[in-house]
Amino acid sequence: MAAKGRITVNEAYCKSCGLCVAACPKHVLRISDHLNARGYRPSEQFTEGCIACSMCAMSCPDACIEVYRIKED
């Protein structure tokens, strides 16, 4: 059974560089349509399928992504 996960993005610090979107092997991230307080469009998880590999977090130059593994019973 594949691992499941979810991410959170600290939108206040995301500069919409897109590195996390490019790094995600499951293509569950995108650049959002709304602007943060600094005028950037933060990344967001837009679909299920995250495997909690942390590639997005490791690629983020501003360390604004946290990855959580969901335990399945």
UniProtKB/TrEMBL annotation:
The keyword tRNA-binding belongs to this UniProt entry's keyword annotation: no
4Fe-4S ferredoxin-type domain location: 5-34, 40-70
A molecular function GO annotation: iron-sulfur cluster binding
Record keywords, A-Z: Iron, Iron-sulfur, Metal-binding
Entry-linked InterPro entries: 4Fe4S_Fe-S-bd, 4Fe4S_Fe_S_CS
UniProt-listed SUPFAM superfamilies: 4Fe-4S ferredoxins
Keyword Coiled coil: no
Matching PROSITE patterns: 4FE4S_FER_1, 4FE4S_FER_2
PANTHER family in alphabetical order: FERREDOXIN SUBUNIT OF PYRUVATE:FLAVODOXIN OXIDOREDUCTASE, FERREDOXIN SUBUNIT OF PYRUVATE:FLAVODOXIN OXIDOREDUCTASE-RELATED
This protein's name: 4Fe-4S ferredoxin-type domain-containing protein
Protein source organism: Jonquetella anthropi DSM 22815
